[in-house]
Amino acid sequence: MEKKKRYSVWSNFRYTFYHLRRLEGMGGMAACGGDVVMSILLPFLEAAFAGAVAAVLVSGKKPEAILLLVTGYVVLLQAARLLQSHLRQRRIEALFMYRGGMMTEFYRKILEMDGQSLESSEGQGKREAAHRNLFSGNDRGIEKYAQSYLEAFFNLGGLVLYGMIVGRRSLFLLAILTAETLLSSWFNYLAGKRAYKTSEEANKYWRDFQYLRRETILPENGKDIRLYRMDKWFLRRFYEWIGKIEVICHKERTGFMAAGILGALLSFGRNVLVYGYLILQMVQGALTLPEFLLYVGIAAGFEAWMNGLFEAFREILENEKLMDDYRDFMDYGEASEEGKQAPSGPGKAHEIRLENVCFRYEGSDSDTLCNIDLTIRPGERIALVGLNGAGKTTLIKLLCGFFRPTGGKIYLDGQDMGELSGKEVFKEFSVVFQEVFAFSFPLAANVCCCGEAQEDRQRLVESLKKAGIWEKVKGLPGGVRTAMNKDLDEEGVTFSGGELQKLMLARALYKNAPVVILDEPTAALDPIAESEMYEKYDEMLQGRTGIFISHRLSSTRFCDRILFMEKGRITEEGSHESLMERGGAYAELFTLQARYYRQKKQEEESYA
Hints:
Elements (H helix, E strand, L loop, with lengths): L8 H49 L5 H50 L2 H5 L1 H14 L7 H28 L1 H47 L4 H6 L3 H53 L5 H42 L21 E8 L9 E8 L4 E5 L6 H8 L7 E6 L2 E2 L5 H5 L2 E4 L10 H6 L8 H10 L3 H5 L22 H15 L3 E5 L7 H14 L4 E6 L10 E6 L2 E6 L1 H7 L2 H23 L1
Parallel strand pairs: 3-8, 3-9, 6-7, 7-8
Antiparallel strand pairs: 1-2, 1-4, 4-5, 9-10
Helix pairs in contact: 1-2, 1-5, 1-9, 2-4, 2-5, 4-9, 5-6, 5-9, 6-8, 6-9, 8-9, 13-15, 17-18
């Protein structure tokens, strides 16, 4: 079924020039408007030059006066060219900076949109489609779209001006020129409509192609690609998707090519009628030589205006789909903060209550979390345990407001989190996720998450010390100013997995949020080391609510309560001792894990 166009051409036009004026101000708009005016005036002055000179030569004036008039016209023409050149350059700069400003808006959207929309396959597809609108170069996308409208304005203005001049002479000539223009416009409209349909199909392959491109250039993927000889598979997929995109692009080009051929045939017929009529008028004495030269120039110029207008319309239609994609993403996942309140007790230990909470990922036919009822008391230590895939990480994303439940409610101190400001809720949580990494910024920026001027030096050092990474940081060439990784700085350092875990813990400690969540940040450690690390975390988080996640049941015995999760449900709850006495799934899995680790330890000792 054909997808309905979401935004009208008029809506996209208003959107484009509203943001152009907002980002580039009246100076940028004046440069664009001035370029349009001069682009109409200058070709007219050039087309009228031959006729004007001929009229002066047959006027009977003295040679000195003729020379003065012709020289004045030439000076006027040159001044107009210089002015247009200046305005054209200003217009190009304004449109380029406008695209840069819209890039900033695009990335602000990505950084501020809710995590659920950002992570969804629909959100990723919309983001990739919008990306093409901004990063396809100067000749495609948002910059070209605005430029094409300006070109349509001055070409249309030229057509109107020349049409008025021709109409005063002959309505027959005007009818011929107008009819040919309308027919050619219709052919180009049909070609543009066809291109819009095919671009919807191309968009899917572009998304697949961009995914493949990203995975190919990621350094961490290089080992697997080479070891398992996946290079041929990647290349085959590249050729396959590029071929499909090329077929679709060929369909677009074929439509516009057909419209161009029909337009050329119409143009030929028009020229035969127009020039034949002008020659006949001159032969009959109804047209003077200066008038003949003027109208010949006007007729030729009319064709140039018409072709320019068609080309501008074609480019507008080509980029309509990209504009629709961009706006579709910018309107997607909007979570307005207007009217939403902050948590009632910011910075203090919170009670978190879940009532019949369910969550289902987009495209899934079953719930990842099912009917969760849970109350976490202020300052309590909670352990979320269970096998991989039980739903622990998803539950954490719901707790800190990153995801919204698809069923049920989550309350923060009795306030519905759906009614609270997301930005304010995030301030109350520090989370160390399972997959830890550092941005390629200075180490201090990774911990403090702010500019150097806003850093609290004492708190930074204390956090690094508590996390057990201060000695490592002190020994770095630039201390806390050392760049992480080598993407932006050749002198940057790369931490091991354990060191990164400590650095992320330092970040969580520096934020000093009342609720701290640790999502298996020690998964790479052996069971004994993980248990010791969690107990160390517990000592650091005194006075705050702590939620610890692990698939190793022995690591979180120090917690006030243990929640055992299976298949998206909390199936058992209590202390370690009470759960072992119950003899349920927790006790069975704990016994199985303990036996496995004992056997592994005995094997290691026998090899030693």
